[in-house]
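Re: the 108-residue chain
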Amino acid sequence: MTLVYLVVLLGGLACMVLLDVRYRLVFGAVGARAAITLAIGVIFFLAWDLAGIALGIFHRGENAVSTGILLAPELPIEELVFLSFLCYLTLVLYTGIVRLIAAREDRR
């Protein structure tokens, strides 16, 4: 039982927050909408995971880098952090790309 994977995920999440704060991409631009969108994404993928677990499709593999803390059977805490990271990364990338395209169009 170690914290390696969880710490790496939280580090990646912290980097996304720094990018977001620096360039006002997601929460700096539209805070309430961003929080709702992020929550909807995490809830959707969490429901997806729970359905897969219930159907016997998803299983948690034992490894040396996870905490071993489970939120539900076969659902490690790292999965919730990963889903949050994935949804937040998608919001940051989407907003950043939209801004880059708009800036490019403005220069024409």
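The mean pLDDT is 94.
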